[in-house]
Amino acid sequence: MSAPAVVQVAPEAQQLARPSRVGRAGFALGLAIVGVILLAALVGNALIPQDPFAQDLNNRLQPPFWMEGAQPAHLFGTDQLGRDYLARLVYGARISLLIGTLTVITSGLIGITLGVLGGFFGGRVDDVVLFAITTRLSIPVVLVALAVVGLMGSSFSLVVATLGLLLWDRFAVVARATTMQVRTLDYVNAAWCAGASTAHILLREILPNIASHLAVVATLEMALAILLEAALSFLGLGVPPPLPSWGLMIAEGKDYMFFSPWVIMIPGIALVLLVLAINLVGDGLRNILATGQR
Amino acid sequence: MSLLEIEDLAVTFGGRTAAVRGVSLGVEPGETHCLVGESGCGKSVTALAVMGLLAPGAARRATRLRFAGNDLLTLSDRGMARLRGNTMSMIFQEPVTSLNPAFTVGSQMAEVMTRHKRVSRSAALERAVELMGRVGITAPELRLGQFPHQLSGGLRQRVMIAMALMCDPQLLVADEPTTALDVTVQAQILRLLASLKRDFGLAILLITHDLGIVARVADRVSVMYAGEVVERAATADLFAAPQHPYTRGLLSCVPVPGKVQRDRPLGSIPGVVPTIAPGFAGCAFRSRCAHAEATCAHEISRRSAGAGHDYLCRLAPRESALQPA
User: Which of A131, A193, B78, B264 has its CA 20 to 30 A from that of A145?
Assistant: First the structure.
């Protein structure tokens, strides 16, 4: 009687353990979209003959290729100052990805350092770290970002610094919790027994073994940073014009949206695609790493 | 002079629990010394206290704690780190979790050596291959590049042992090294430890609860109960004439072919190891002992039962071998 039961349980357990086919497809799709956008950001402006900053007031608000009256020179049309929309979109991808990456690096450095130290040393150190995390969690991100950028004027580096200094909380929480789990494991004890220094334990025994969790956090934070940058730029407090940030493009286009809807549709869709793709990659990463645990 | 001398070692946790109370023992060079006892007797804590790796919050006191000419009581953290993995190494119970999953076996082994000795990484890797061959790992060059999860439990324990030997230590502390392994692999590992002791003159402090292992590999035995060494003897003496009721109880729990009668239950010691608070006096075993009397609540002095054999009980030495308790 017990044999069929075992057979029945086995495939279920396998299904639980392995990411579903949909999940894998999502991961692949996410990677593909991020890859395309990354490629566009890196080499796009070299391939497109139009200059994203060159104005041409005779050719304002030209429609994109799927509408009537489109010009072959401007595939995605032009904006209210006659600048090529495709060139600006591709240049904007560079801004979005750059801000996302730099923010994740800054906030990751802060959060992971704090979290690992708190989780590893415990006691007083951990009290300080926990206090920092709860303090940070009680501060509304968008409000502070608005205040800072509003007070000090908008610039690319200020946006990165502000977001980086604000978005480290999730890194800290995850790093702290996973460090606490890992630091009592046998191989850490074994490393102590082999005469390892504290720095070695932190950098070689603990960090590599919590890296998978942090990678997932990094993708989610990156998507969040990109969205926040777009929001700030939309409010006119992010990347200063004439830099073509997607959020800024939406803001500049909103006056013309009734008669030329593509000026906000195109950067809007690009933004949705990028954030969705990064989230898909993050989810896929989490599934793969959760089941790939050795 | 002993390689490792422990005198009157005491460990308390947060002032509430006395995990180790007045343990004294010596390990000679090239000797296998077994610490035996139930779970919670303070065996592992004793070993960790020697390595200087007690958890924060634990307090260690001793009148003497010397290893190979170093006074471990006054040695700095840095000095301890220099000894650990170098002249004193330790292996653990769970080979499955004792290796860092993020790095290859070879890099972890080489690291131990480059940390302590002035050798190049390639020389360390060569030494790793040599030792892996020595501990019976087939195709050692192949294993160097593998990750721990690609190895079986027995292989991982061999890797751990090889890693512990990288710097040619004088003392190997083995905390239940075979508990997590199959019986056949267990036997192989024990044979390996015995041969390493012979070939390298390695002293081994072996922690175990398995008297079968003790009988096979130990030269001397210290029986621990509730943080105390209740009986110390050469292995042969201990098995021939166990004195402390706890030792006798432990031995009666082991089935011996031909001696166990079919219709009689196997011996057991009722109850569990008590948690001892500081200030406890008298014999800790008295609550579980068949010979307990009112005097057992007072301080007990050590009695001798022959050369190098003493025990902590009010009962007079007995000649006899084991009899049903």
Answer: A131
State which fold the A22-291 domain adopts: MetI-like fold (1.10.3720)
Query: Are B174 and B260 found together in one domain?
Result: yes
Q: Which of B168, B196, B229 finishes a domain? A: B168
Question: Any CB–CB contact under 8 A between B97 and chain A?
Answer: yes
Contacts of range B167-170, beta carbons closer than 8 Å, 24 or more positions apart: B167/B85, B167/B86, B167/B87, B167/B89, B167/B112, B167/B113, B167/B116, B167/B117, B168/B200, B169/B85, B169/B86, B169/B87, B169/B88, B169/B89, B169/B202, B170/B3, B170/B29, B170/B68, B170/B87, B170/B88, B170/B202, B170/B203
Say yes or no: B52 contacts chain A, CB-CB below 8 A. Answer: no
User: In the listed set B126, B153, B168, which residue is the last one of a domain according to the structure?
Assistant: B168
Domain enclosing residue B122, as ranges: 92-168
Q: State pTM to two decimals.
A: 0.73
Tens digit of each residue's pLDDT (9 = 90 or more) over A97-142: 888 899 999 999 999 999 999 988 888 898 999 999 999 989 888 8
Of A206, A50, A264, A225, the closest CA to residue A141 belongs to A225
Same domain, B211 and B299: yes
Domain co-membership, B253 together with B277: yes
Nearest CA in chain B to A122: B56
Comparing alpha-carbon positions, the chain A residue that sits nearest to B82 is A195
Look at chain B and report how many structural domains it folds into: 2
Chain A residues within 8 angstroms (CB to CB) of chain B: 122-123, 185-187, 189-197, 200, 204-205, 208-209, 211, 294
Please state the domain extents for chain A: 22-291
With CB atoms and an 8 Å threshold, state whether B56 touches A197.
no
* Residue range A12-24, pLDDT digits in tens: 444 444 556 776 7
